[in-house]
Design goal:
13 helices, 44% helix, single chain, 7-stranded mixed β-sheet, Aminopeptidase, alpha+beta
Length: 312
């Protein structure tokens, strides 16, 4: 290992390494890799699953990854009532066969965000070592923690369900999971964490920190959110257009709409001195993206609008 760790969001088109790990674990057959990769790519592209990972900066070896989705109450309850190993793999197989997913769409996530909350379900979590005495364990966890929290930030989460080997019971409970549901066979179990209102828990349990929620103020459209998320990754307008399958002019028009909506929603947002609207686009983008980095809830679905500023 080089010790040079690189962390980031998982993007559509980059899922093959994770699916290959599933095959190495025996969770899927080697013959399933192409279909599973295509399915995971599609669900990440559509915002149904979100993922993050840590890689060795030199070899690009995956050291840690986590995948998260949201499910209805009945899916969470059924999963905990009859827990089975690699439940999310079964959900993905069903999606491949039927084209229907139990995971919530972005539109369904928006409804949960704006009302009684969402049930987060870990699609999978893996790291190359769980030996807490190994220095690589701490390095990998520290690199992944900001990505883990970002995957939850901005969502109105009421429960989190997680599957793990019971050999990791101690650390699973330490990060905040309080209920355990053992499988009938094997050494795996499901764990559940419910959001609590005791403020002290927010500071000593990672999973409770992830469930702190703030409502968005600006409520951008889905296309606007995708443009800004792509910009946060350092992409140019040309690269954003290629990624989203639209023209560069459409991206530029979207930015103009974003700036106008931000200024309308939060008067003086860009600069109190900018009374004539003359502040240049690059400076507005810098101010906006700095705000978004600290307020990631602005990029989460919440009563999404369908108006003239949505996808072209």
């Amino acid at each position: 290992m080089s010790g040079n760790y690189v962390s980031g969001y998982l993007e559509a088109g980059n899922c093959s390494g994770i699916v290959e790990i599933w095959a190495d674990q025996g969770a899927i057959a080697t013959s399933e890799i192409p279909a599973m990769t295509k399915a995971l790519d599609r669900l990440i592209h559509d915002g149904v699953i979100e993922g993050g990972l840590v890689q060795d900066g030199n070899s690009k070896e995956i050291l840690v990854y986590g995948l998260n989705a949201f499910v209805p109450d009945e899916t969470r309850d059924a999963t905990l009532e009859n827990p089975e190993p690699f439940h999310s793999i079964r959900f993905l197989r069903d999606y491949i066969e039927t084209g229907q997913s139990v995971f919530l769409t972005v539109e369904e996530q928006a409804k949960g965000n704006a009302h009684d909350g969402l049930n987060a379900m870990s699609v999978d979590y893996w790291q190359n070592t769980f030996d807490m005495t190994d220095p690589e364990f701490s390095k990998a966890m520290n690199a992944f923690l900001p990505i883990f929290l970002d995957m939850f930030k901005g969502f109105n989460i009421k429960t989190v369900t997680f599957e793990s080997d019971t050999a990791h019971d101690k650390i699973t409970r330490e990060i905040g999971y309080t209920e355990r549901f053992d499988h009938q066979t094997g050494t795996r179990a499901h764990y559940l964490a419910n959001r609590v209102t005791n403020g002290a828990a927010f500071h000593n349990q990672m999973i409770q920190m992830a469930m702190i929620y703030r409502q968005p103020r600006m409520r951008f459209s889905l296309f606007e959110q995708r443009v800004m998320r792509s910009a946060l990754s350092g992409r140019t307008d040309q690269e954003i257009a290629a990624l989203l399958g639209c023209s560069r002019d459409a991206v530029k028009q979207c930015w103009r709409g974003i700036y106008a909506h931000a200024a309308e929603t939060v008067p003086g947002f860009f600069n109190h001195a900018d009374t004539d609207g003359s502040q240049r686009g690059p400076e507005k983008r810098r101010i906006l993206l700095a705000h978004i980095r600290e307020n990631i809830q602005e990029l989460r679905p919440y009563s999404l609008r369908r108006d003239k500023r949505s996808a072209p």
